[in-house]
Amino acid sequence: MTARIIDGTLIADEMRAEIAEDVKRYAEAHGAPPGLGVILVGDNPASASYVRMKRRACEKVGMRSVGHILPASATQAEVEAAVTALNDDPAVHGILVQLPLPGHIDESTILSLVRLDKDVDGFHPVNIGLLAMKGRDPLFTPATPTGVMELLKRAGAVLSGANAVVVGRSNIVGMPVALMLIRENATVTICHSRTVDLRGQVGRADVVIAAIGKPNFIKGDWLKPGATVIDVGTNQIPDADDPRGYRYVGDVDYDTAVETAGAITKVPGGVGPMTITMLLSNTLKAAWRTAGQA
Ligand code: NDP
Fold it and tell me: Taking the domain 30-119, which CATH number applies?
């Protein structure tokens, strides 16, 4: 069997075109486009590049982006002041605090300070708590897990009653994606570094979500034939044939997995493009909600 490719780039492009149309409608109705406020602390090149990509994506769909770029030496009070400024700015509908923050900053306090109705990254503990509660709905869900769910939906994956295995239990990917799968009535197993017989667990899964951060870790012959595989992993490996000297691979060994899976995402071109798209979608949702029309 050769798996069907779930094309995140294509799906993200379709969604961004829909978002751009809706941004236009919003701007016509309210005289200004939705706005995203971004906080970047320090000079981590990967974080700076993510922030640039997010701001560019915003502008491409017609949204405004407001940046607060603080030096690595910024104090807790200065970062808190940046969040408060964005909380109070009526032209800003969503706030993104680029993680990780430098070690001397209390990340949890910063994330808790973001106004709930502007928490477009979905990392506020109240939003995560609401996600975990039956019968309650968060205002926003985190971008990457939401992107994973959108890929599953658009790939036609049947989730109700399916065995889903999430490998990884981080706050930003594994745990929220597991909570979202439960809400779709999947039977969810969460695996992590202490899991005994990971291969056996993965082998029982109709749906596998890999979010480990280890290149090509999950092999094709671990998978149940026909499984749907979403690979969140984004790992840089050396590649002398690439002009950059490196390339990105996922947590799943794509070349073998494509032979066993029923449907699979690629890295790059799978979850990555969806993450920013879901952030744009959440910001638009926040703007309509503030305007009382969502
Ligand atoms: P973390 O490092 O925070 O979490 C990794 C998780 O994997 C942990 O729960 C860890 O277990 C588990 N793990 C590590 N080793 C093993 C192992 N040998 N067997 C089973 N489980 C293991 O990573 P993130 O969740 O932040 O990111 C995961 C991957 O997703 C990374 O490659 C990252 O780059 C990528 N990513 C991609 C995004 C995108 O937009 N495409 C966005 C965010 C992340 P334990 O809890 O026991 O330590």
Answer: 3.40.50.10860
Tens-place pLDDT, residues 150-187: 999 999 999 999 999 999 999 999 999 999 999 999 99
Distance separating alpha carbons of residues 294 and 289, to the nearest angstrom: 5
DSSP code of residue 252: B
> Tokens representing 29?
């109705």
Structure tokens given for 66: 């407001």
CA dihedral 47, 50, 51, 57 (to 10 degrees): 180
- Interval 261-289 mean pLDDT: 97
Which amino acid residue places its CA nearest to atom 8 of ligand 1? 168
What's the rounded Cα separation, in Å, for the pair 110 and 143?
18
- The ligand 1 atom at the shortest distance from the C-alpha of residue 174 is 25
What values do phi and psi take at 64, rounded to 5? -90, 150
Query: Is residue 293 scored above 90 in pLDDT?
Result: no
- Which of 98, 170, 175 gets mutated to test ligand 1 (max ligand atoms within 8 A of its CB)? 170
Domain spans of the chain, in order of start: 30-119, 143-272
Whole-angstrom CA distances from 251 to 32, 219, 266, 292 are 41, 9, 10, 42
Total number of residues shown for the chain: 294
Q: Are 198 and 167 in contact (CB under 8 A)?
A: yes
Amino acid code (one letter) for 207 = V
User: What is the architecture of the domain spanning 143-272?
Assistant: 3-Layer(aba) Sandwich (3.40)
SS3 217: coil
What is the C-alpha separation between 143 and 66, in angstroms, rounded?
19
Q: Give yes or no for residue 265 having a pLDDT over 90.
A: yes
